[in-house]
Specification:
The structure holds two protein chains of two kinds. By secondary structure, chain A is mainly alpha-helical. Chain A has one domain. Helices cover 71% and strands 3% of the residues of chain A. In chain A, strands 1-2 form a two-stranded antiparallel sheet. Chain B is of the alpha/beta class. Chain B folds into two domains: 197 residues, Response regulator (Rossmann fold); 127 residues, Response regulator (Rossmann fold, 3-Layer(aba) Sandwich). The longest helix of chain B has 24 residues. Classes of the chains: A mainly alpha, B alpha/beta. At the A-B interface, α1, α4, α9 and α10 of A face β8, α7, α8, α10 and α11 of B.
Chain lengths: 295, 404
């Protein structure tokens, strides 16, 4: 087996690829947060709960409505997005003009309530969800066995992240969005319905979390706690990337997946800490984050 | 004659003293027997011993008749939030201002460690149903601890020993990186080595890890015959899912060292099918277990996990001991509990040892494949019954709180 400096290279390649897969997943999750913060200046702590809703939505759809994985991949994010829109209209909007802390506390409370509700309804152990038949099996690469579903995660994440980035940074709609949050009064004077845009943006960001939840259902445990475990890590990623930077969130997600993957290989005990270590260093050297604009 | 009178007098005084002593111990304090159920009501262990443990204890009280020695039995409960400080504060409050006689339930080993200290200081009995650590009857043993359902030693022995003896010599551990996981890994490692097996590697994954693919790759690269999951709950579900996804289950056996029925139900049967594990109870074992489980399910909405059945069984045994002792005085009740043999649908061929360990038959089970299942509750196939003394550790001399 090929080795370099005493390190098994095949093993290392495997870990890099696994890190990249997890990174794609992180990118997908942090994207929604970055959009909501970057465009709306709302720190959405309920994003983890929305991810959990997505996974449970997939389970409910399959077991109670007979909707398979592929349909759920489209329908569930729409449903979760609708819940997001409702949240924004009813709860978030009235305090939107207050300090960031208010929306943070509000969404954190919503997350805790949703988590408690789902524990009450479905128990704490979680629900089984099988990998769709089309994506069972895998490919034997020289250095590892790559399950088809993991390859699909990379593809889906690349398409969704790339598409979202392009839409916000390169299209007219994206330009309206960015302008509308920069100077709402002026945009409204031009006849753009800014409040509607804000609502839809919030809904879209939340729908992304729902999408990630459906993606996660076949590979991770579908349980009420699944979102809160991941949310803090994803927050750290958004902070490292620069709060509000869409591209930054995507690239940092990928990068942190790889960093975490390597830590799992060399010193697993630190794997949940390493991202926060990076966050501390980045904040010390570049307070606005790697891709953030200095305020 | 005088000498005779004197000795008679002495005898009378002694007898009177003894009687008054007995009179103090006799009867039920505060005119009721109060059982506090401390469990995880809304956290990760809520399904294995939370509201279900309260239901099980209440069922035991009802089946006992609702009163003992003519006094009512009351059940109260609280959420430990999986926090040792919250749990021990609640127990202290129960003892000091609510006249609780015993605390049942007791799930997370960390909470139980703190709670049993308070209970022992106040000479109150801890009825431990679901904690995994074996410390409560070994390194932290106490004359007031009763550990009922299972412990790490029993599940490790039950699962590991037969596999090593069947020729699966090379073992790899995916371990939860905290006290419970370390304890489980250590016990299992000892069993592997005692049976001429070899541990080829281990990774310590932080609690609550979402993605286990990195660890599964390492396990794969180690060339192990068996990959043992020394973790619990969602960690077990996640690591098993990933092991199946990366094809590990085709090249090696995966052994879950601690799997509760709700965890097994959370696993996709097509990936979990065939996995061997050890449990203290399975609802579908025989008519007696099925009858009780049907009653439990009707009230709780789900089949019982082993901790639920254990909570029922130990509460019943406690109440029988109170009746037999004629008092709710902890020392007298504990002596009776250890003297009487537990015997019900849960506790088979059972004894409560002087160290507080309840030793009973354990079950080696296999998770059923999808085509073997009648419905969602039909998850295990019992393949072997293990005599308790074969799987639990022997009593330590310093923990021999012999009945006095």
């Amino acid at each position: 087996m090929a080795t370099f400096l005493g390190i098994n290279l095949f093993g290392l390649f495997g870990q890099l690829l696994v890190g990249l897969i997890n990174g794609s997943f992180y990118a997908l999750l942090s994207l929604g947060l970055a959009i909501i913060f970057g465009l709306l200046k709302i720190i959405n702590f309920a994003q983890g709960a929305m991810y959990m809703l997505g996974a449970f939505g997939a389970w409910l759809a399959l077991n109670h409505l007979g909707i398979n994985y592929w349909a759920a991949l489209v329908l569930v994010p729409l449903a979760v997005g609708a819940i997001g829109i409702l949240l924004e209209r009813v709860l978030v909007r009235p305090i939107a003009h207050e300090d960031h802390l208010y929306s943070l506390l509000l969404t954190f409370g919503i997350a805790l309530m949703l988590q408690g509700l789902f524990t009450h309804l479905f128990g704490s152990s979680g629900m089984p969800y099988a990998i769709p038949d089309e994506l069972k099996g895998g490919t034997r690469l020289p250095f590892m066995y790559l399950p088809d579903y993991r390859a699909w995660i990379i593809v889906a994440s690349a398409v969704v992240c790339g598409g979202t980035w392009w839409m916000i940074e390169k299209t007219r709609l994206g330009a309206y969005l960015r302008a509308g949050t920069e100077n709402p009064q002026l945009m409204q004077a031009f006849g753009i319905n800014v409040p509607l845009m804000v609502t839809l943006t919030f809904g879209f960001g939340v729908a992304l979390a729902g999408f990630a939840g459906v993606m996660a259902a076949p590979v991770y445990s579908v349980s009420p706690e699944m979102g809160s475990n991941l949310l803090i890590v994803v927050f750290a990623i958004v902070v490292i990337g620069g709060m509000g930077s869409i591209g930054g969130a995507i690239l940092t997600g990928l990068g942190m997946g790889i960093v975490e993957g390597l830590t799992k290989y060399f010193y697993p005990e630190a794997s949940t800490t390493v991202i926060f270590l990076v966050m501390v260093i980045v904040l010390l050297l570049k307070p606005a984050g790697l891709f953030g604009k200095e305020a | 004659m005088k000498a005779m009178q004197k000795s008679l007098m002495t005898a009378a005084v002694v007898a009177a003293t003894a009687l008054s002593g007995a009179a103090q111990a006799e009867g039920i304090s505060d005119d009721k027997v109060k059982i506090g159920v401390l469990a995880d009501m809304g956290g990760v262990y809520a399904d294995i011993c939370g509201p279900g443990c309260v239901t099980a204890v209440e069922m035991a009280v009802e089946d006992f008749g609702g009163s003992v020695l003519g006094k009512p039995i009351e059940v109260i409960s609280a959420d430990d939030q999986l926090k040792p400080d919250v749990g021990s504060a609640k127990v202290r409050q129960w003892i000091e201002s609510e006249q609780v006689d015993t605390v049942a339930g007791l799930v997370s080993s960390a909470v139980v460690g703190a709670a049993t200290k308070v209970l022992t200081d106040n000479k109150k009995i801890a009825l431990i149903s679901t904690a995994a650590s074996n410390a409560f009857t070994t390194s932290s043993c106490s004359p007031y601890n009763v550990h009922w359902t299972y412990n790490v030693t029993a599940v490790a022995n039950g699962t590991v020993k037969p596999m090593v003896q069947a020729g699966k010599k090379k073992w790899f551990f995916i371990t939860a990186d905290y006290a419970f996981g370390h304890a489980l890994e250590k016990v299992a490692t000892d069993v592997v080595e005692q049976n001429q097996g070899e541990v080829v590697g281990a990774v310590r994954a932080p609690l609550g890890t979402t993605d286990f693919s990195s660890y599964v790759l390492q396990a794969q690269a180690s060339g192990a015959d068996v990959v043992a999951l020394a973790n619990a709950g969602a960690d077990t579900v996640n690591s098993l899912k990933t092991a199946a996804e990366f094809g590990l289950t085709q090249t090696a056996d995966v052994a879950g060292l601690l799997v509760f029925t709700p965890n097994a139900q959370a696993m996709d049967p097509s990936t979990a099918g065939g996995m061997t594990l050890t449990t203290g109870f399975y609802w579908d074992y025989d008519d007696a277990t099925r009858a009780w489980s049907a009653r439990f399910k009707e009230r709780h909405g789900a089949i019982p996990a082993m901790g639920h059945a254990g909570a029922y069984s130990m509460t019943m045994h406690y109440l029988k001991a109170v009746e037999a002792a004629g008092t709710d005085d902890s020392d007298a009740v504990m002596a009776k509990m250890k003297e009487m043999k537990p015997d019900d649908f849960f506790a088979r061929n059972a004894t409560l040892r002087a160290d507080g360990r309840m030793v009973h038959d354990m079950y080696t089970v296999k998770i059923k494949n999808p085509d073997e299942r009648r419905d969602g509750d039909d998850i295990f196939k019992v393949v072997d019954v293990l005599a308790g003394d074969q799987v639990y550790e022997p009593m330590l001399p310093e923990c021999n709180f012999a009945k006095s």
